[in-house]
Design goal:
Elements (H helix, E strand, L loop, with lengths): L2 H8 L9 E3 L14 E3 L7 E7 L5 E5 L7 H10 L3 E3 L2 E5 L4 H6 L22 H13 L3 E8 L13 E4 L5 H15 L11 E2 L10 H9 L2 E8 L5 H18 L3 E3 L3
Parallel strand pairs: 4-6, 4-7, 7-10, 8-9
Antiparallel strand pairs: 1-2, 2-3, 3-6, 5-11, 8-10
Helix pairs in contact: 2-7, 5-7
Protein backbone atom coordinates (compact mmCIF):
# COMPACT_ATOMS: atom_id res chain seq x y z
CA UNK A 1 0.00 0.00 0.00
CA UNK A 2 1.35 3.45 -0.90
CA UNK A 3 2.17 5.70 2.01
CA UNK A 4 -0.44 8.28 1.02
CA UNK A 5 -3.19 5.67 0.92
CA UNK A 6 -2.05 4.31 4.28
CA UNK A 7 -2.17 7.72 5.92
CA UNK A 8 -5.64 8.31 4.54
CA UNK A 9 -6.80 4.98 5.94
CA UNK A 10 -5.44 5.36 9.45
CA UNK A 11 -6.27 9.06 9.70
CA UNK A 12 -3.54 11.65 9.91
CA UNK A 13 -5.49 13.72 12.45
CA UNK A 14 -4.82 11.20 15.21
CA UNK A 15 -1.29 12.51 15.73
CA UNK A 16 -0.86 13.51 19.38
CA UNK A 17 -1.20 17.17 20.19
CA UNK A 18 -3.14 18.18 17.08
CA UNK A 19 -6.54 19.78 16.95
CA UNK A 20 -8.00 20.39 13.51
CA UNK A 21 -11.29 22.08 12.84
CA UNK A 22 -12.53 21.68 9.26
CA UNK A 23 -14.84 24.25 7.69
CA UNK A 24 -16.94 24.18 4.58
CA UNK A 25 -18.26 20.65 4.98
CA UNK A 26 -14.91 19.02 4.25
CA UNK A 27 -14.38 20.78 0.92
CA UNK A 28 -10.77 21.16 -0.13
CA UNK A 29 -10.81 23.99 -2.68
CA UNK A 30 -11.59 27.27 -0.96
CA UNK A 31 -11.98 30.87 -1.95
CA UNK A 32 -8.98 33.15 -1.55
CA UNK A 33 -10.22 34.33 1.85
CA UNK A 34 -11.58 31.07 3.24
CA UNK A 35 -9.23 28.55 4.87
CA UNK A 36 -9.73 24.84 4.36
CA UNK A 37 -9.31 24.25 8.09
CA UNK A 38 -7.63 25.59 11.22
CA UNK A 39 -5.08 23.80 13.37
CA UNK A 40 -5.16 24.18 17.15
CA UNK A 41 -8.42 26.09 16.92
CA UNK A 42 -9.51 27.94 20.07
CA UNK A 43 -5.93 28.18 21.31
CA UNK A 44 -3.39 30.98 21.08
CA UNK A 45 -1.64 28.99 18.34
CA UNK A 46 -4.72 28.75 16.09
CA UNK A 47 -3.70 29.25 12.47
CA UNK A 48 -5.29 28.58 9.09
CA UNK A 49 -4.41 26.14 6.34
CA UNK A 50 -5.38 26.85 2.73
CA UNK A 51 -5.80 24.22 0.02
CA UNK A 52 -5.89 24.79 -3.73
CA UNK A 53 -6.90 21.98 -6.08
CA UNK A 54 -5.81 22.05 -9.71
CA UNK A 55 -6.69 18.53 -10.79
CA UNK A 56 -4.60 15.38 -10.74
CA UNK A 57 -0.92 15.74 -9.99
CA UNK A 58 1.56 16.15 -7.16
CA UNK A 59 0.95 17.83 -3.81
CA UNK A 60 3.07 20.69 -2.49
CA UNK A 61 3.09 22.21 1.00
CA UNK A 62 4.34 25.76 1.56
CA UNK A 63 5.03 27.00 5.09
CA UNK A 64 5.67 30.57 6.19
CA UNK A 65 6.03 32.25 9.56
CA UNK A 66 7.98 29.60 11.42
CA UNK A 67 9.93 32.55 12.81
CA UNK A 68 7.68 35.47 13.67
CA UNK A 69 10.13 38.23 12.78
CA UNK A 70 10.70 36.93 9.23
CA UNK A 71 7.89 38.88 7.64
CA UNK A 72 8.78 38.23 4.01
CA UNK A 73 8.24 34.50 4.50
CA UNK A 74 4.74 34.76 5.89
CA UNK A 75 3.78 37.67 3.64
CA UNK A 76 4.83 35.68 0.58
CA UNK A 77 3.05 32.56 1.82
CA UNK A 78 -0.12 34.57 2.45
CA UNK A 79 -0.06 35.77 -1.16
CA UNK A 80 0.70 32.26 -2.43
CA UNK A 81 -2.36 30.95 -0.59
CA UNK A 82 -4.45 32.96 -3.06
CA UNK A 83 -2.84 31.48 -6.17
CA UNK A 84 -4.80 29.29 -8.52
CA UNK A 85 -2.92 26.36 -9.97
CA UNK A 86 -3.24 24.07 -12.96
CA UNK A 87 -2.49 20.51 -11.95
CA UNK A 88 -1.88 19.04 -8.52
CA UNK A 89 -2.67 20.35 -5.05
CA UNK A 90 -1.18 23.34 -3.27
CA UNK A 91 -1.41 23.39 0.54
CA UNK A 92 -0.30 26.57 2.32
CA UNK A 93 0.27 27.21 6.02
CA UNK A 94 1.07 30.93 5.79
CA UNK A 95 1.49 31.84 9.46
CA UNK A 96 2.78 28.79 11.27
CA UNK A 97 3.80 30.55 14.49
CA UNK A 98 1.07 33.03 15.32
CA UNK A 99 2.35 33.79 18.84
CA UNK A 100 5.77 34.76 17.49
CA UNK A 101 4.26 36.71 14.59
CA UNK A 102 2.09 38.77 16.93
CA UNK A 103 5.18 39.53 19.03
CA UNK A 104 7.36 40.16 15.95
CA UNK A 105 9.81 37.74 17.52
CA UNK A 106 11.88 34.88 16.10
CA UNK A 107 10.68 32.59 18.87
CA UNK A 108 7.28 31.82 20.35
CA UNK A 109 6.46 30.89 23.92
CA UNK A 110 8.19 27.51 23.59
CA UNK A 111 11.39 28.69 21.92
CA UNK A 112 12.47 28.27 18.31
CA UNK A 113 9.68 26.41 16.51
CA UNK A 114 12.03 25.32 13.74
CA UNK A 115 14.11 23.33 16.23
CA UNK A 116 11.23 21.14 17.40
CA UNK A 117 11.05 18.52 14.61
CA UNK A 118 13.59 15.78 15.47
CA UNK A 119 13.76 12.98 12.93
CA UNK A 120 12.54 9.67 14.30
CA UNK A 121 10.91 11.19 17.38
CA UNK A 122 7.68 12.95 18.27
CA UNK A 123 7.70 16.69 17.47
CA UNK A 124 8.50 18.42 20.72
CA UNK A 125 5.58 20.81 21.24
CA UNK A 126 1.86 20.91 20.60
CA UNK A 127 2.33 23.39 17.76
CA UNK A 128 5.11 21.36 16.12
CA UNK A 129 2.93 18.25 16.37
CA UNK A 130 0.02 20.08 14.76
CA UNK A 131 2.22 21.32 11.90
CA UNK A 132 3.53 17.82 11.32
CA UNK A 133 -0.10 16.73 11.37
CA UNK A 134 -0.64 18.97 8.32
CA UNK A 135 2.29 17.22 6.62
CA UNK A 136 0.87 13.80 7.47
CA UNK A 137 -2.65 14.71 6.40
CA UNK A 138 -1.64 15.89 2.93
CA UNK A 139 1.44 13.68 2.39
CA UNK A 140 3.14 16.25 0.13
CA UNK A 141 5.53 15.36 -2.66
CA UNK A 142 7.44 18.57 -1.99
CA UNK A 143 7.70 20.99 0.94
CA UNK A 144 8.89 24.63 0.82
CA UNK A 145 9.74 26.42 4.06
CA UNK A 146 10.13 30.19 3.52
CA UNK A 147 12.57 32.20 5.66
CA UNK A 148 14.64 35.40 5.86
CA UNK A 149 18.18 35.83 7.18
CA UNK A 150 19.83 39.04 8.34
CA UNK A 151 22.94 38.70 6.20
CA UNK A 152 24.24 36.77 3.20
CA UNK A 153 25.70 33.28 3.42
CA UNK A 154 29.47 33.28 3.02
CA UNK A 155 29.76 37.03 3.60
CA UNK A 156 28.21 37.61 7.01
CA UNK A 157 28.89 35.49 10.05
CA UNK A 158 26.07 33.13 11.08
CA UNK A 159 23.88 34.24 8.17
CA UNK A 160 22.31 32.00 5.55
CA UNK A 161 20.62 34.50 3.24
CA UNK A 162 20.32 34.09 -0.55
CA UNK A 163 20.46 30.31 -0.41
CA UNK A 164 18.10 27.49 -1.41
CA UNK A 165 18.87 24.45 0.74
CA UNK A 166 17.46 21.22 -0.82
CA UNK A 167 16.84 17.83 0.71
CA UNK A 168 18.82 14.89 -0.61
CA UNK A 169 15.83 13.36 -2.39
CA UNK A 170 14.03 13.21 -5.74
CA UNK A 171 16.10 15.64 -7.77
CA UNK A 172 15.73 18.48 -5.27
CA UNK A 173 19.40 19.43 -5.45
CA UNK A 174 19.31 19.93 -9.22
CA UNK A 175 16.03 21.84 -9.03
CA UNK A 176 17.48 24.15 -6.36
CA UNK A 177 20.46 24.82 -8.61
CA UNK A 178 18.24 25.62 -11.59
CA UNK A 179 15.95 27.88 -9.58
CA UNK A 180 18.94 29.79 -8.21
CA UNK A 181 20.18 30.25 -11.78
CA UNK A 182 16.73 31.46 -12.87
CA UNK A 183 16.56 33.98 -10.02
CA UNK A 184 20.03 35.30 -10.82
CA UNK A 185 19.29 35.62 -14.53
CA UNK A 186 15.75 37.01 -14.37
CA UNK A 187 14.98 38.40 -10.91
CA UNK A 188 18.06 39.69 -9.07
CA UNK A 189 19.41 42.85 -10.79
CA UNK A 190 22.77 42.45 -12.50
CA UNK A 191 24.04 45.34 -10.42
CA UNK A 192 23.64 43.29 -7.22
CA UNK A 193 26.12 40.41 -7.63
CA UNK A 194 26.49 40.07 -3.86
CA UNK A 195 22.81 39.07 -3.71
CA UNK A 196 23.08 36.23 -6.21
CA UNK A 197 21.29 33.11 -5.02
CA UNK A 198 23.07 29.81 -4.65
CA UNK A 199 22.24 26.22 -3.88
CA UNK A 200 23.16 25.16 -0.36
CA UNK A 201 24.34 21.79 0.86
CA UNK A 202 21.85 18.94 0.94
CA UNK A 203 19.55 18.55 3.94
CA UNK A 204 19.69 15.00 5.30
CA UNK A 205 17.57 14.91 8.45
CA UNK A 206 20.43 15.52 10.85
CA UNK A 207 18.90 18.56 12.57
CA UNK A 208 15.53 19.04 14.33
CA UNK A 209 14.11 21.33 11.63
CA UNK A 210 10.94 20.90 9.57
CA UNK A 211 12.62 20.34 6.20
CA UNK A 212 15.24 18.10 7.82
CA UNK A 213 12.39 15.95 9.11
CA UNK A 214 10.88 15.89 5.61
CA UNK A 215 14.21 14.49 4.40
CA UNK A 216 14.79 12.06 7.24
CA UNK A 217 11.24 10.78 7.77
CA UNK A 218 9.73 10.99 4.31
CA UNK A 219 12.71 11.05 1.93
CA UNK A 220 10.84 13.67 -0.08
CA UNK A 221 11.90 16.76 -1.98
CA UNK A 222 12.01 19.80 0.25
CA UNK A 223 13.56 23.25 0.29
CA UNK A 224 14.57 25.72 2.97
CA UNK A 225 14.50 29.08 1.20
CA UNK A 226 16.42 31.99 2.71
CA UNK A 227 16.52 35.52 1.39
CA UNK A 228 18.28 38.41 3.15
CA UNK A 229 17.37 41.79 4.60
CA UNK A 230 20.83 43.16 3.80
CA UNK A 231 20.20 46.25 1.63
CA UNK A 232 16.87 44.75 0.50
CA UNK A 233 13.47 46.21 1.32
CA UNK A 234 10.60 44.03 2.50
CA UNK A 235 8.59 44.19 -0.72
CA UNK A 236 11.59 43.02 -2.74
CA UNK A 237 12.17 40.11 -0.37
CA UNK A 238 8.54 39.10 -0.74
CA UNK A 239 8.74 39.31 -4.53
CA UNK A 240 11.94 37.25 -4.69
CA UNK A 241 10.45 34.66 -2.35
CA UNK A 242 7.31 34.28 -4.47
CA UNK A 243 9.36 34.02 -7.66
CA UNK A 244 11.44 31.25 -6.11
CA UNK A 245 8.36 29.40 -4.92
CA UNK A 246 6.65 29.69 -8.29
CA UNK A 247 9.72 28.35 -10.11
CA UNK A 248 10.27 25.45 -7.71
CA UNK A 249 6.60 24.47 -7.84
CA UNK A 250 6.73 24.51 -11.63
CA UNK A 251 9.72 22.16 -11.63
CA UNK A 252 7.65 19.77 -9.54
CA UNK A 253 4.69 19.90 -11.92
CA UNK A 254 2.51 22.50 -10.21
CA UNK A 255 1.97 25.54 -12.42
CA UNK A 256 0.53 28.81 -11.25
CA UNK A 257 -2.53 29.71 -13.28
CA UNK A 258 -2.71 33.45 -13.88
CA UNK A 259 -6.27 34.71 -14.22
CA UNK A 260 -7.00 37.04 -17.10
Amino acid sequence: MRRRAFLTKVGALSIAGTSVSTVGGGRTEQSATEPAYTILSETEHATDVFVREGGSGPTALIVGGMHGDEKSGYRAATDIAEWRISGGTLVVLPKANQVAIRANSREGKNGDLNRQFPTGEQPETELAQAIWGVVSRHDPDVVLDLHRSIGIYGYHESSVGQVIWPTNAEGASEYAKRTAEYLNESVVPWSMPLHAFRRGGEITGSRPMLVHRVAGELNRAGYLFETTEFFIDSNTRVRWTKKAAEDLLSRHGIERSVER
